[in-house]
Amino acid sequence: MGHREAMGSGSDEGLVHAFAFDGLGGGAALGWDDVAGDIGPCWIHLDRTNDRADRWLERDAGLAPIVIEALLAEETRPRATSMPGGLLIILRGVNLNPGADPEDMISLRVWLEKDRLITLRRSPIMAVQDVRTRIIAGGGPKTPTLALIAIIRGLVTRAGSIIEEIDDSVSVAEEKLLSSAPAEMRRQLSDVRRVAIMLRRYLAPQRDTLSRLPVEHGAAWEQSDILLLREASDGMLRLVEDLDAARDRAAVLHEELSARLADTMNRNMYLLSIVASIFLPLGLLTGLFGINVGGMPWLESPLGFAYVTAGLFAIAAFQFWLLKKTGIL
Q: What pLDDT is recorded for position 9?
C-alpha cells in the first residue's frame, strides 16, 4: 500500500489523517487509496464538513445505513449504542480553538470495530490532535480501542482545565465580594453561571455515556481497556461534580451580592426618607413665610430673617432629637 507522511488537518479533502497501527505505539500514515482496502488495525479521522468524507462513508466504509445516518446526523447528544458490527459513540469536547468559546462544544462521532476506529469532527479537537502527535512520535496507542480510550481521556483532561478556570473565577469572586464594584461582579458571576450551565448540558450525558461503554461493547473490551475506561468515567464524574459545585457557589455568591445590593438600596431609601421627613415641615414654614401678605410676623423688623432662620434650626434640631429618641435614627 502507498504510505505517506502524516497529514495535517484537512490536507486531503476530508481525510484529516489516517494511521495503520504498527503495534508498537506508532503508525503508518494513509491516504484515501489506502483506506479503501483491508489495512489491518487502523484509525481513520474524517472532516464531516467535506462531501468526499460523506461519500466514503456511504460507499466504501462498509457500514450499515443506520450507522452512517447516526454518524452524519446534524444534531447529536453524547451516547453509546451497540450496533451490528461495532459500537457507535457520540462525544463532546470543549472548543479550545483560537477565537472560540470553550462552551461551544465540538461533537466527535465515533465508530469502533475490532480493528478499525473511525472518527468524524467538524472543527479541530485538541484531544484528537494530541493522540495523533503521539502516534507520529512513536509513543501512542497500539490498537484502535486504545486510541479511542486515549481520545476520551484527552477530552476529560481538556474539559478539566476549563472547569478549573471556572472554579478559579468563582474563588476570585469570593475574595473580591467585599471590594469589587457590585455591578461588575454580578456580570462576572452571570458569565460563570452561563458557561457552567452550557458545559453541563453535554458533560452530564457524556458522564453517563462513558459509564455505559464497558456494558455496551460487552466482551469486545479487554480487561485493561475496561479499567482505563472506568478511570476516564470516574474523571468525567468528578468534573461534573466540580462543575455543579462551582455553579452552586456562583449562584450563592450571586444571591449574596443581590442581597447586599438590596440592603444598600434600602439603606439609601431609608436615609432619603429621613431627610425628607426633616425638611418637609421646614419647607412648609418657608413656603408659609413667603406668601407676602399682611400680618406676617417680623415683616418690618431688621432681625426678622434671623428669627425665622433660628426657628428653622430649632425645629430641625428638635426633629433630629425626636428621631434619635424613638430609635428611627
A: 40
| Cα 162 to Cα 190: distance, rounded to the nearest angstrom | 17
What's the CA gap between 226 and 166, in Å, rounded? 30
Pairing of strands 42-47, 116-121: parallel
Residues in the chain: 329
User: Sheet of 106-112: strands edge to edge?
Assistant: 27-29, 15-21, 42-47, 116-121, 106-112, 86-93, 79-83
| Element at 307 (helix H, strand E) | helix 304-325
- Which residues make beta-bridge pairs with 27? 21
Q: Which residue has the cell 450499515?
A: 64
Distance CA 68, CA 302 (A): 103
Whether 52 and 44 have beta carbons less than 8 Å apart is answered as no
* pLDDT per residue as tens digits for the range 224-245: 877 888 888 888 888 888 888 8
| Alpha-carbon dihedral sign for residues 39, 40, 42, 46 | positive
CA dist 297 and 56 (Å) reads 105
Question: 110, 318, 321: which is closest to 213 by C-alpha?
Answer: 110
Phi (first) and psi of residue 79, to 5 degrees: -165, 165
Query: Which parts of the chain sit beneath pLDDT 50?
Result: 1-11
For 117, the grid coordinates are 476506529
Whole-angstrom distance, CA of residue 99 vs CA of residue 104 = 11
Q: Give the closest residue to 128 by CA, choosing from 152, 144, 105, 104.
A: 152
Give me the helices (H) in 176-222, please. 182-217
Based on its alpha-carbon atoms, the radius of gyration of the chain, rounded to whole angstroms, reads 35
Identity at 106, one-letter amino acid code: I
Tens-place pLDDT, residues 163-177: 888 888 887 777 776
Backbone angles phi, psi at 175, to 5 degrees: -70, -35
Residues 6+ apart with CB under 8 A from 283: none
